[in-house]
């Protein structure tokens, strides 16, 4: 054991040095990157405020004294029957039926967030499960599941949504169902590809050679390594679900009136081109929709950069990829033995 | 090679069959009586019975489906419940508007999206890149109809209120009647469609290009002393074509099946608008026809993309 | 006048983590017509140096002076450098697989370069290309002109790369690890070709490599780099037989030589290379130097110049710190030991099934027979694709064989399934090649090493932790690091983790699949020594798979040479090396390139010692800013 005894002091030495690195590894480093990203922070603040508004929308109604579906034909409309613009009573104006846009926006946030988050999570769960099974087991399982994904992706989804709604009539559950059915494949494909490439890695073979069961390998070895794509793609699916829902509502296929939803409000504004004389009918709901999707997209992008700095460039003018990065990676691999 | 395409063709048929089964049986299990849609509210029970017999609705579902399929293969998609015109005619009449919209849109979005993606990737991490990424994020987040409504308000209504016609509010003018008028009416729809879609292409181009620029063969190209422009546009872009074409094929196919939102916003009488009207009218043969047509476009696009792959990538030959 | 002359080149690369000091005040000069070698381990900055001075690293900040044919490369604009690349400086890269554009024909990739630098017609360019392709040994070049890279083998692709680099007859060629990705026998062909070409065209070659044996056999002069610093430079002959810097000496002593018999432990360089994020102070090698003194840790070393032209960056001169080698007493007489593994006529055929076409089958293993005795190390050598890794997995029970039987401790294992198969997993373990890929990056090493205990329900909780820590200590890891993630360890340390995991259940057989081929020489020696000590202390049985004959000879008692799914020769190591019978074995042995043996005493004299300040000019200036 002489050799080992000789080796040990060096290893200990190395570890002392790497202690500094360890302290700000992984989580701390991610947090540091997040805190350095003003756009990401703004997006988070926006999302928090939006959620609060959605949760406490009855308070908004109480505060303004306007029920979301109540029509104020006296105060909310001009003598010619046109809606009034933003004023002291209707902060963001009134719509063509004399309803308070602000209150309806607050209630609409509930629908958008609920549909966005629910649909994103449901699609994520389905996509992750099917993607992992398909990628891990390969063979005919993969062929069948892969073909199913191809099939779903080959369906003209908006047209099918139209057909479904025309049969069953518009409803919230149907909207979510349609969104989930056509969204899970995005996650499924990503997870399938990642799982397939992880399965080829040697640490999976190591687990297998130790006699670990497939379930244990999937849950202990593969799932934790998928956390980055799962977080990022789930976040990214929220805005697309929100837009999907708004689009369905805009086409009159989503939430049934008079329930307030952003897409529905825009559809109302578009009908008979009311918005041409009442800009607030399109600007405020449009802005609400745009800001929300933007916030979630920024969040997703920012999280990806923070969690997976590989895709992120460091300093301007850095065009070299492989050589430099391959070499940096090697440099980092030996960081454990840094003598600082 | 041929075997591969046989497989793809087989799969295409599978997609179309599943799709037809889906829509057909969807309407079969649906509540509501088609005969009443055809006849209107005042029809008597005897009239309804007559209509059911004419439409073959009294036959077993399997027989109905069989006759639907055999007719569809011959190009007969049935007749509209509303005005008894052949569905295929109705759709074909709508195709020029949709195709005009898509072709112009594709050109504009490629012209915007790819250069932005290239600029972003070439200057990764710099101000230019941040600009490009801001464009990408906003474009990805902008719901099509919001952008459409806003541009109508700003570029049609406000100028008109000021007393001049910058762009028309929409509507489709046939190309052969007056090409200039055709283009003028389509400028707003094109840009709206292109701006939101360009973001997707910019992101795709940026991501792919960043990856390719890290490849060893790009270093080889630089080591050969080729100009940077040639390195990017010849060597690097060549390798990013494949994913771009996949995306393009899918997008064109989806839009040809009906660019529903844009057509709705700008009042373009295209295939998508037809579908929306059909839903409002409960006109099932048209809905089935449009869905099947959309599926056919997608399936065809997939096969064309596969063919292009083998042309583009010598390793696939 | 030298063709290329570098003075105090310093390269810094800004990154998110800080500034990387990729090269510190490097000077060298290369005479026209010679082969100049740059040796170093990964992260030594050898590739970065050459890429930066040819303008291929635009993100790097470079200071100093690099005179090429009298002009300073570092003062040139991107355009001027671009004109120089290809026409005056040709380059050959490591991986011919990824260095050629997959979508263009090889001919067009070469003619493109000709057209960039010369105004000639397409026919002339084509003729030039075909001519050059023939010269580098592409048969039937005229018709292969329009083939794509994937239609060539690895060695052929590297020939195409060389043809591309040479076609404009540049005075200088930079070859960056040109043979590392290739099989040994192909390596020899490529090196011969490079050598022949430089003689034919009078080209100067700068050869970047980590392979000291290869360098010793081809280079006229060489420099040794470590962590961005040039530690030694001089004529190759004396550099390798009589190194002036302790690092060079350490590298040579940690490389297993095919000349020496096994059973002796190598002398590794302890520790790991430093981070390049620190501004270099004092001697950069001090932490790992066997003859380190206080001075080395506090003062920058002076440049010592010797009478034979060698220069070393050291306070002292290199000398052996230990008696040459310690006999570890591993000479074993294997015959009377019990058989652990018995492989009988194992065959494996892969069937490629498809929906329409007929079945195609590939025979991967064509009847393998071998026995491994208790306590011995059995080597399996062969080139890539010969089936050696597949055979290992069949023996490990991970891939079912098509025919034949493998018995482990007398128990047939190929037919077992279910619970029995899981039980069998205890008795045979694998150690993998890739120290990064073989450990789950998201799990702590306590959990990774403890996995065998968990899966086989051997120990839990505190008991498991205790056992894991014992194992960690056994393989030379600090047990306090129980809660760390793999990314916090260096390559060599990760390989120790892999070994600890394999040891956990005290298996009858441990299969090492290329365990050191991803490691640098100095680290490789640490791991090889660890393996031998563990074997001696615990009486372990190893199956050792490698493509590197020197390593195999160093650790193995018995060697089987594999080619195309068959064992072509099987013998005791010494006998196999002394009297190879099969032509393939001879071909492999001929391909080995060893550095010249170390000389016992130094005949050279120190003539001048240049103080540190002058040497570190660039760095000092920078520090004072």
Structure commentary:
- The complex is a heterotrimer of chains A (340), B (317) and C (625).
- Chain A has helices spanning 2-23, 26-35, 38-55, 57-64, 101-137, 139-153, 157-168, 172-199, 202-209, 214-222, 227-250, 262-270, 280-307, 322-333.
- With 340 residues, chain A is mostly helical.
- Chain A has one domain (37-310): MetI-like fold.
- In chain A, helix 11 (227-250) packs parallel to helix 12 (262-270) and helix 12 (262-270) packs antiparallel against helix 13 (280-307).
- The radius of gyration of chain A is 26 Å and the shape is elongated.
- With 317 residues, chain B is mainly α.
- Chain B has 13 helices and no strands.
- Chain B has helices at 2-29, 34-39, 45-55, 61-73, 87-122, 127-141, 144-162, 179-213, 216-223, 228-256, 260-266, 271-281, 284-312.
- The longest helix of chain B is centred in the first third of the chain and has 36 residues, at 87-122.
- With 625 residues, chain C is an alpha/beta fold.
- Chain C has a domain at 375-590: P-loop containing nucleotide triphosphate hydrolases (Rossmann fold, 3-Layer(aba) Sandwich).
- The interface between A and C is large, with 56 and 73 residues.
- Chain C: Pfam families: ABC_tran (PF00005), oligo_HPY (PF08352).
Strand proportion of chain B, as a percent range, falls in under 5%
Q: List low-confidence stretches of chain B.
A: none
Number of strands of chain B: 0
The largest sheet of chain A is: none
Fourth-level CATH superfamily of chain A: MetI-like
User: What is the average of the pLDDT values of chain A?
Assistant: 77
Radius of gyration of chain B over alpha carbons? 24 Å
């Amino acid at each position: 054991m002489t050799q080992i005894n000789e080796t040990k002091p060096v290893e200990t030495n190395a570890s002392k040095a790497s202690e500094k690195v360890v302290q700000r590894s992984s989580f701390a480093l991610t947090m540091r990157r997040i805190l350095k990203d003003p756009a990401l922070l703004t997006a988070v603040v926006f999302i928090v405020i939006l959620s609060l508004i959605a949760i406490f929308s009855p308070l908004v109604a109480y505060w303004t004294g306007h029920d979301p579906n109540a029509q104020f034909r006296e105060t909310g409309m001009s003598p010619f029957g046109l809606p009034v613009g933003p004023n002291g009573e209707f902060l963001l104006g009134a719509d063509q039926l004399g309803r308070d846009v602000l209150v309806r926006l607050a209630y609409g946030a509930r629908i958008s967030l609920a549909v966005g988050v629910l649909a994103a999570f449901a699609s994520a769960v389905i996509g992750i499960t099917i993607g992992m099974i398909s990628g891990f087991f390969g063979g005919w399982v993969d062929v069948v599941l892969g073909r199913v994904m191809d099939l779903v992706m080959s369906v003209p989804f908006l047209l099918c949504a139209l057909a479904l709604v025309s049969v069953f009539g518009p409803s919230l559950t149907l909207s979510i169902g349609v969104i989930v059915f056509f969204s899970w494949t995005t996650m499924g494909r990503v997870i399938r590809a990642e799982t397939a490439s992880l399965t080829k890695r040697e640490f999976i073979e190591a687990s297998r050679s130790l006699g670990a069961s497939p379930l244990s390998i999937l849950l202990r070895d593969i799932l934790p390594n998928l956390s980055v794509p799962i977080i990022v793609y789930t976040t990214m699916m929220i805005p697309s679900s929100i837009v999907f829902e708004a689009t369905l509502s805009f086409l009159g296929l989503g939430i049934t009136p008079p329930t307030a939803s952003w897409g529905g409000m825009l559809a109302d504004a578009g009908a008979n081109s009311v918005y041409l004389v009442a800009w607030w009918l399109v600007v405020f709901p449009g802005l609400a929709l745009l800001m929300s999707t933007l916030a979630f997209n920024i969040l997703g992008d920012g999280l990806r950069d923070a969690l997976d700095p590989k895709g992120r460039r460091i300093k301007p003018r850095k065009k070299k990829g492989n050589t430099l990065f391959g070499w940096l990676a090697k440099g980092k691999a030996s960081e454990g033995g840094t003598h600082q | 090679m041929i075997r591969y395409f046989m497989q793809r063709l087989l799969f295409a048929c599978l997609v179309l069959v599943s799709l037809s089964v889906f829509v057909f049986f969807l309407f079969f299990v649906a509540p509501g009586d088609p005969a009443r849609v055809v006849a209107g509210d005042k029809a008597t029970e005897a009239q309804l019975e007559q209509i059911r017999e004419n439409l073959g609705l009294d036959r077993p579902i399997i027989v109905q489906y069989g006759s639907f399929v055999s007719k569809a293969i011959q190009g007969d998609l049935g007749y509209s419940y509303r005005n008894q015109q052949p569905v295929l005619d109705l759709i074909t009449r709508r195709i020029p508007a949709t195709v005009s919209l898509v072709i112009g849109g594709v050109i504009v979005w490629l012209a915007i999206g790819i250069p932005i993606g290239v600029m972003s990737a070439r200057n990764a991490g710099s101000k230019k890149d941040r600009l490009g990424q801001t464009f990408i994020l906003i474009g990805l987040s902008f719901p099509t109809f919001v952008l459409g409504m806003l541009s109508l308000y700003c570029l049609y209504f406000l100028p008109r209120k000021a007393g001049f016609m910058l762009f028309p509010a929409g509507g489709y003018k046939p190309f052969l009647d007056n090409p200039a008028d055709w283009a003028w009416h389509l400028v707003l729809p094109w840009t709206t469609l292109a701006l939101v879609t360009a973001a997707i292409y910019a992101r795709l181009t940026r991501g792919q290009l960043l990856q390719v620029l890290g490849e060893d063969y790009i270093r080889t190209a630089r080591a050969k002393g080729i100009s940077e422009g040639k390195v990017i546009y010849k060597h690097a872009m060549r390798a990013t074509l494949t994913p771009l074409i996949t995306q393009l094929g899918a997008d064109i196919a989806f839009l040809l099946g009906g660019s529903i939102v844009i057509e709705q916003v700008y009042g373009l009488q295209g295939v998508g608008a037809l579908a929306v009207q059909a839903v409002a009218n409960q006109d099932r043969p048209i809905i089935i026809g449009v869905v099947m047509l959309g599926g056919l476009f997608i399936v065809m696009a997939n096969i064309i993309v596969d063919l292009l792959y083998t042309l583009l990538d010598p390793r696939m030959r | 006048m030298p063709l290329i002359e570098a003075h105090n080149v310093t390269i810094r690369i800004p990154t998110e983590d800080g500034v990387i000091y990729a090269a510190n005040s490097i000077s060298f000069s290369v005479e026209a017509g010679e082969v100049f070698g740059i040796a170093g381990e990964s992260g030594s900055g050898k590739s970065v140096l050459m890429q930066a001075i040819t303008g291929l690293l635009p993100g790097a900040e470079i200071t100093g002076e690099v005179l090429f044919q009298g002009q300073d490369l570092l003062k040139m604009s991107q355009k001027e450098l671009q004109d120089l690349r290809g026409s005056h400086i040709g380059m050959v890269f490591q991986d011919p697989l990824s260095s050629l554009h997959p979508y263009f024909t090889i001919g067009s990739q070469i003619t493109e370069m000709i057209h960039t630098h010369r105004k000639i017609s397409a026919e002339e360019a084509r003729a030039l290309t075909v001519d050059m392709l023939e010269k580098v040994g592409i048969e039937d070049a005229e018709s292969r002109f329009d083939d794509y890279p994937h239609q060539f083998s690895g060695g052929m692709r590297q020939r195409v790369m060389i043809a591309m680099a040479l076609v404009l007859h540049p005075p200088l060629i930079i070859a960056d690890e040109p043979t590392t990705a290739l099989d040994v026998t192909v390596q020899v062909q490529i090196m011969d070709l490079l050598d022949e070409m430089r003689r034919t065209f009078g080209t100067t070659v700068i050869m970047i490599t980590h392979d000291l044996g290869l360098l010793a056999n081809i280079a006229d002069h060489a420099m040794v780099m470590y962590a961005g610093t040039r530690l030694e430079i001089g004529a190759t002959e004396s550099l390798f037989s009589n190194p002036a810097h302790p690092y060079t000496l350490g590298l040579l002593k940690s490389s297993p030589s095919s000349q020496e018999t096994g059973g002796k432990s190598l002398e590794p360089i302890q520790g790991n290379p430093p981070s390049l994020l620190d501004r270099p102070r004092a001697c950069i090698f001090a932490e790992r130097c066997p003859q380190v003194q206080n001075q080395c840790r506090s003062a920058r070393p002076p440049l010592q110049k010797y009478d034979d032209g060698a220069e070393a960056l050291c306070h002292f001169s290199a000398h052996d710190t230990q008696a040459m080698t310690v006999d570890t007493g591993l000479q074993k007489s294997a015959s009377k030991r019990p058989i652990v593994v018995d492989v009988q006529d194992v065959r494996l055929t892969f069937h490629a099934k498809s929906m329409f076409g007929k079945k195609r089958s590939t025979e991967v293993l064509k009847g393998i027979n071998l026995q491994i005795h208790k306590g011995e190390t059995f080597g399996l050598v062969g080139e890539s694709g010969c089936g050696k890794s597949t055979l290992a997995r069949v023996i490990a029970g991970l891939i079912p064989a098509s025919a034949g039987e493998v018995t482990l401790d007398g128990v047939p294992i190929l037919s077992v399934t279910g619970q029995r198969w899981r039980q069998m997993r205890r008795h045979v373990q694998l150690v993998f090649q890739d120290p990064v890929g073989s450990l789950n990056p998201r799990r702590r090493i306590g959990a990774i090493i403890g996995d065998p205990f968990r899966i086989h329900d051997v120990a839990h909780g505190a008991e498991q932790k205790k056992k894991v820590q014992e194992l960690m200590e056994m393989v030379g890891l600090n047990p306090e690091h129980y809660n760390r993630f793999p990314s916090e360890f260096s390559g060599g340390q990760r390989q120790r983790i892999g070994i600890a995991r394999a040891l956990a259940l005290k298996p009858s057989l441990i299969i090492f699949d290329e365990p050191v081929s991803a490691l640098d020489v100095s680290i490789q020696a640490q791991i090889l020594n660890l393996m031998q000590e563990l074997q001696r202390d615990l009486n372990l049985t190893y199956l050792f798979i490698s493509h590197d004959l020197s390593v195999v000879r160093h650790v193995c008692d018995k060697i089987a040479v594999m080619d195309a799914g068959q064992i072509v020769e099987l013998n005791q190591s010494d006998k196999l090396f002394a009297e190879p019978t099969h032509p393939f074995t001879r071909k492999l042995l001929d391909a080995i390139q060893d550095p010249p043996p170390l000389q016992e005493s130094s005949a050279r004299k120190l003539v001048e010692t240049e103080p540190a300040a002058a040497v570190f000019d660039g760095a000092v200036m920078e520090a004072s800013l």
